[in-house]
Specification:
The protein is an alpha/beta fold. The protein is built from 10 helices and 11 strands. The chain is globular, with a radius of gyration of 20 Å.
Length: 285
């Protein structure tokens, strides 16, 4: 299973170096695990294109089966090793992470802890942090440029410009932009970046909920700054040829302060597992 985890980590990270970091291994150790898996299966799983690793045909065949195998393994170990809890856990999550990461976490947690009710509070990261301080939520996922007290960074992700495939919104002047609400952490970053390149812009959509943002993008009416990992497949990440300024990396942080209930601590472990590609207490299985 360790070899399969290494294979999936390389696929998701797009390379051995970042995969090794997520697995807690050296680059050499991660490369050796891929080599051992290829030897065991007697086939080449990756091919190198320039500096990038891409899946070979055999790797493409393995990918879906590896994910199913890993999910089954994790489910078995979780159900056998996880104690049973009761009660309610309130988790704050920003809009951009709800659709891309949370469903899988909740699905696995519900199987492991069917007697625990999870309540989601969906707001911008700043509001989620405030709810955590006031006791409105037990746990919080956020997207931020830094990480605060009692927080841990689960992943870094690049903020990118997004538009509809084949659209021309990025060519218009002034640039039509979906910026999110005033409390959105991406909004000031995008405005500053546009200001530095002296690109005139106008706001088309100023809410943080993803449904209206996606509707504006799909209609070809604007571009928007989104985390790379949260971009739906129907949209296009705009490259350098779009003449838009580069945007910085953000941190996906988990805040699990001291004094949590056992159920909340277990949910936090499920969140960590989802972002690391490993299930709790299963590193060597």
């Amino acid at each position: 299973m360790a070899l399969v985890r290494a294979f999936l980590a390389v696929v998701e990270a797009g390379g051995v170096t970042r995969a090794a970091a997520s697995l807690g291994l050296s680059q050499a150790a991660a490369s050796q695990q891929i080599k051992r898996l290829e030897e065991a299966l007697d086939c080449r799983l990756f091919e190198r294109t320039g500096r990038r690793l891409v899946l070979a045909p055999a790797g493409e065949r393995l990918l879906a089966q590896a994910r199913r195998l890993l999910a089954m393994n994790d489910e078995v170990w979780s159900s056998m090793r996880t104690p049973s809890f009761e009660g309610e856990v309130r988790m704050g999550v920003p809009y951009d992470l709800v659709g891309s990461f949370v469903p899988g976490v909740l699905r696995r947690f519900a199987k492991a802890q069917p007697r625990v009710r999870v309540s989601l509070v969906c707001e911008d990261s700043k509001i989620v942090r405030e709810a955590l301080k006031s006791g409105g939520v037990d746990l919080a996922l956020t997207t931020e440029t830094e990480c605060g007290r009692h927080g841990e960074t689960l992943r870094t992700d690049r903020l990118v410009w997004v538009g509809v495939a084949g659209g021309d919104a990025h060519l218009r002047d002034p640039l039509p932009v979906s910026l999110g609400a005033p409390s959105c952490v991406f909004r000031p970053v995008a405005i500053e970046a546009l200001g530095k390149v002296r690109r005139d812009w106008r706001a088309v959509c100023e809410v943080s909920r993803m449904e209206p943002v996606h509707a504006v993008l799909e209609a070809g009416l604007a571009v928007a700054p989104l985390l790379r990992s949260s971009v739906p497949e129907r949209f296009e990440i705009l490259g350098r040829d779009a003449r838009l300024p580069a945007l910085p990396e953000f941190r996906i942080n988990l805040y699990a302060p001291p004094g949590l209930s056992p159920a909340a601590r277990d949910l936090a472990d499920h969140v960590r597992a989802a972002f690391s590609g490993r299930a709790r207490n299963m590193h060597n299985n």
